Amino acid sequence: MAQETEFKLSIAPEQASGFWHALRARFPGLKPETRNLYSAYYDTPGGDLRKGGVALRLRRQAGRWIQTIKSVGSANGGLHRRNEHETEVAAQLPSFPAMTDAGFGDLIADHRIRESLGVVFSTEFERSAALLQWKPDTVIEIALDQGLIAAGKLRDAICEIELELKFGDTGALFDLARTIATDIPVRLDNRSKAERGYALAANARPAPVKAGSSPLRPGMRIDEAFVALAFECLAHLQANEPGTIAGRNPEYRHQARVALRRLRSLIRVFAPIFPDAPWTVLLDQVKQLARTLGEARNLDVFLGETLPRTGSGAQPGMQALKRRAQAARRKAGRAAGAALADRSHALLMLDLTETLLNLLRPGDPASKPIDEFASAALARNHAKIRKRGRNMRKLEFEDLHRLRIAVKRLRYSMEFFEPLAPKKAHDALDALSELQDLLGHLNDAATAWKLLDTLAVEDAAAEFQQAIGYVRGWTARDGEHCRQHLANAWKRFDGLDRWWRKA
């Protein structure tokens, strides 16, 4: 069974028409050939093959049927690595001996599975492809696919670029992907056609995606742990990119921002282990992107949470305040979407992905088990919070702001390392969440004041300014209410057993 290594890049249809023209400007010898491909993907009604980590595809090309069996493999930052087994078959009928040869005989040993296999979805697209001799020892196939995924009456468009390494160094894929991303707006995509097809068959509606569970396991090497966690953060971000770019549910950009926050926290925790990685440059770019998303998120919270809680709908001038805030949110939302669709973002994702993969070096000091490192990291973060939280009742806003950031980072770290923790760690997470929520409300109140400062200069009308004043007063009262509960929340958190001491 051979391993397939490829980048998958999403491209807008309006950009696809000029793709080959742009590429031939850099590589004049490219001569793409076009062919139509039809593929049928098979599984049981219960999805036994998918559950077993297998995709079974029969593809018609040039009058022949090719059966391909692919393992789930990995998809990190748009770089897909899967094992695949191909064999020619006489007709559009799955070959069970070929599946056995590929190592999946146990999966189809049950005759009920074999007998219930059927087409779950199909793809039909036009592929224009060419081979690029990147170096004497490196060849990459460049393919542009345009067409449809079909499941019953449901349809989903295909418009993507695949860069498959035929032989040579994987670094060449990154270099070629950067060349393309520099010339044409593209987005790195972790979803295979099979994943999209299964989602379409299930009629799964697009929805904002929250962070996945931690991929850690006891005894994992530090480098493996960090890379797995970082790719989980990137997957969280990528899952919410399409919705943010399209300007759909504001929760998309909120989750995209959370993904960036988690990534920044993770890099800070592990940075001392990998001092040679270009963290400063990468973190600066991640921080700038998070700031752009944050501006939109602040307006989402102001309009979606703060204003409704004030009960101020009947106040004179309130409708004008909402309209101006909504206009500001639309502008900020467009900026957030544009930032994720920009060429610079694709280049950032490529840099992050390549940097992370290059950190996997079993002989390095980072190859020690993760458990001891996790305990020490949590202890350091907890000590910072205890230091910042002294004399809680006397802390000024800036002190509370720094405490909130420290609490947030500890919460992310505890979530990262949760698989290594005893069950009682959930109590600490609950207490930390309560503390973070209260500090977050205080921050929302302060952010609302800053937004009101900006909006106040746009309209001098008395009723508009009265509405501004009303919201200021309400947020000040709400902030004071949160402060009254902080001491108890702090006491609950500080009194919990520090389980990582015994980890």
What are the SSEs and their pairings?
Blueprint: E1 2-11, H1 13-16, H2 19-26, E2 33-43, H3 48-51, E3 54-61, E4 64-71, E5 74-76, E6 79-89, H4 96-101, H5 111-116, E7 118-135, E8 138-151, E9 154-167, H6 171-183, E10 186-188, H7 193-201, H8 222-246, H9 250-270, H10 279-310, H11 318-341, H12 343-357, H13 370-388, H14 397-416, H15 425-456, H16 462-494
Antiparallel strand pairs: 1-6, 1-9, 1-10, 2-3, 2-7, 3-4, 4-6, 5-6, 7-8, 8-9
Outline the structure in words.
Helix content is 54%, strand content 20%. The chain is of the alpha+beta class and 503 residues long. The chain has an eight-stranded antiparallel barrel with strand order 1-6-4-3-2-7-8-9. A hairpin with a 2-residue loop joins strand 7 and strand 8. The radius of gyration is 26 Å and the shape is globular.
